[in-house]
Amino acid sequence: MYTEIKGGITAPKGFKAAGVQAGIKKSGKHDVAVIYSTVPASVAGVCTTNTMAAAPVAVSRLAFESGIASAIVVNSGCANACTGEQGLSDANAMAQITADLLSIPKEDVLVASTGIIGVTLPMEKVTAGIKAAVAQLGPDEQDYSTLAIMTTDTFQKHCAYEFELGGVPVRIAGIAKGSGMIHPNMATMLAFITTDAAIAPALLKQALTDAVNVSFNMISVDGDTSTNDMATVLANGLAGNKKIETKNEDYAAFTKILTEVCIYLAKQIVVDGEGATKFLELNVTGAASFADAKKTAMAIAKSPLVKTAFFGEDANWGRILCAVGYSEAAADPTKISLSIGDLTIVKQGLGAPIDELELKKIMAEHDIRVVVDLGLGQAEATMWTCDFSYEYVKINGEYHT
Amino acid sequence: MYTEIKGGITAPKGFKAAGVQAGIKKSGKHDVAVIYSTVPASVAGVCTTNTMAAAPVAVSRLAFESGIASAIVVNSGCANACTGEQGLSDANAMAQITADLLSIPKEDVLVASTGIIGVTLPMEKVTAGIKAAVAQLGPDEQDYSTLAIMTTDTFQKHCAYEFELGGVPVRIAGIAKGSGMIHPNMATMLAFITTDAAIAPALLKQALTDAVNVSFNMISVDGDTSTNDMATVLANGLAGNKKIETKNEDYAAFTKILTEVCIYLAKQIVVDGEGATKFLELNVTGAASFADAKKTAMAIAKSPLVKTAFFGEDANWGRILCAVGYSEAAADPTKISLSIGDLTIVKQGLGAPIDELELKKIMAEHDIRVVVDLGLGQAEATMWTCDFSYEYVKINGEYHT
């Protein structure tokens, strides 16, 4: 049980944030943000698995290892990826400048960047931006910090909830960005979550990993896992709940809400997928294992032929079965069934008689649910993806370096 | 050494072919073909790895196992995939009808289909088509057999060469189709190769497997491996060369030419990739292993972000490095180099100073070569792919079932 609250990323006690226009983005829009906990917080993070991981990821990993942090500094407009020694030095400088201004250890500052790859940061602008952001730290009622992490996003993605742990009110909030280069294992996606819950770093790490596995790791826009991305949560304990130090009832309750936050933000990213006109929920059931269910869902979610068919509002189930077939998951053509919306389209491998008008209505909707029952076991997985439109090609063909 | 010759798929001695309009395609275009060797031939085939493999694939596999065949019957307009018992019975009927008309054993007939998945064959039309095609068997100077295997292809793909084995002139010819659902491990791709070389089935199988691994398995249009596809070669021995029964010099010479045929046809498929405006050759060098080189090339070839960037004529090397990073191949950001055309773009992980005008000229060309040097070892791989355009979305969004 939780209730939605106002206040954005600074809704939990003891958090301040600000977003400013530092001139890194050519558009002049907000591009530097600082998120700050007035007391040191437990921290956990999950980063990109890309071997070309950007410099800020390397810097943040150190903070994640210590389990304690109190600030996040982030810029958009430049990913500081594939930038070598200079990039690493710049990412460290971002942490150092923020730390000095806030009088905290450099190791307590997380760094994140998003934007164009292969270009070094304009450090003069970045430095001025960090100074301005720190000077403006406060409740961030205008949500400028969310604006400052956006790239091709068309809307801000945030949520804030209040719930109870042992009768004590606890708050959690999250912001995220991402709309292209989105795929499991942290694509060009940033998610920053704040909470005033008291929880030990090791348990926070476990809770975040579990939450990410069923949220950010289950979305795909274009199959590209990026160089920069991370999901992180700061838990500063100011709610005053009994600190979670074992996998008790409170841990379960906290993990559940954290998962809700991650799923909400992950879905928002897919809804804002570059050029997306459809939001697709893929539910694979009856798999021999979770791994098989996920592989199957992912093959469907990545298939350009499936995605263009949904764009064309065509229930081309042959393309879906074809993707199932090359997913490398165990599958039997005589046992597979498929439904779109409430309509059974395929039953045990064969096309079922369908109400064409009803199907047309379902395919015309924005939100479409596809269920693939492999008919082999009990495991299942849910993924979210979007369609491939002219607009996706336009955005990515015209987004020049 | 070989010379190009005329005569298409029937250029090698003892082969006849025909393509007819059987009315399976709504367009009324050619849709049934028969290719026939007047004497039993050695046969080898490589089929889709898709677990939803279509009925004709199951039937052809039996012929491949025996190593001997004398005819291929193929239709376009309907893939006979995901059609259950009825589909298998129809594919067997196609073989039986062809066998009866040609007075050969049913087991000597290969069956192939391409087109829409999930619909059963209109067997009355198919039967009439096979009868008409067999009646018209001859030199197929008009290349109707090539027309009859096309779906969304915009041009015919064929080649015919003459070369020598031990001083004896030998001929080889191939036709292929495919432009969407194209990815390694046999995508919606059919390739039929005829030769009058004399070669034992086991060696023919080895030669074809090696040839396919560096040709059809190294192309990607959209990452979708289809349910139906196969590459097959019939070798009837009528050239009169000393039969190849060991891995001798003749075997090497034959494999080399067979590989040339497969690479030529594979490249033609990419050139005709749905909506393609660019032909990209990806050459990955310096990899720790061939598997790593191939993984790297494939990740780049599949990336919608890379493909849309080439469509937009933008040398967005960050997206290429990003794809390298998530390819799961060993890679080191400080050792990787990249060139496009003759220009070095990235040197040891860092953007190199480039002549922007020269780069713009290269990106504006139709054929573009990208070399990624991982700087780790000696292995390399070459793949061919195309860009992602508005037209790809249009073709696949509007190709209704």
From TrEMBL, chains A, B:
Subcellular compartments: Cytoplasm
Catalytic activity: L-glutamate + acetyl-CoA = N-acetyl-L-glutamate + CoA + H(+); N(2)-acetyl-L-ornithine + L-glutamate = N-acetyl-L-glutamate + L-ornithine
Active site annotation, chain numbering: T188
Binding residues annotated for substrate, in chain numbering: T151, K177, T188, E274, N396, T401
Record-level Gene Ontology MF annotations: L-glutamate N-acetyltransferase activity; L-glutamate N-acetyltransferase activity, acting on acetyl-L-ornithine as donor
Keyword Cytoplasm: yes
SUPFAM superfamilies membership: DmpA/ArgJ-like
Stored Pfam families: ArgJ
Keyword Acyltransferase: yes
EC number assigned by the record: 2.3.1.35, 2.3.1.1
Site (Cleavage) residue list: A187, T188
Residues marked Involved in the stabilization of negative charge on the oxyanion by the formation of the oxyanion hole (site): T114, G115
Pathway noted in the entry: Amino-acid biosynthesis; L-arginine biosynthesis; N(2)-acetyl-L-ornithine from L-glutamate: step 1/4; Amino-acid biosynthesis; L-arginine biosynthesis; L-ornithine and N-acetyl-L-glutamate from L-glutamate and N(2)-acetyl-L-ornithine (cyclic): step 1/1
Main location per the UniProt record: cytoplasm
Residues annotated as transmembrane: none
Assigned keywords, A-Z: Acyltransferase, Amino-acid biosynthesis, Arginine biosynthesis, Autocatalytic cleavage, Cytoplasm, Multifunctional enzyme, Transferase
Domain of life: Bacteria
Any one Gene Ontology BP term: L-arginine biosynthetic process
A GO CC term assigned to this protein in UniProt: cytoplasm
Family the entry assigns: Belongs to the ArgJ family.
Purpose of the protein: Catalyzes two activities which are involved in the cyclic version of arginine biosynthesis: the synthesis of N-acetylglutamate from glutamate and acetyl-CoA as the acetyl donor, and of ornithine by transacetylation between N(2)-acetylornithine and glutamate.
Record's subunit section: Heterotetramer of two alpha and two beta chains.
Protein name according to UniProt: Arginine biosynthesis bifunctional protein ArgJ
Organism name: Pelosinus fermentans B4
Taxonomic classification: Bacteria, Bacillati, Bacillota, Negativicutes, Selenomonadales
Gene encoding the protein: argJ
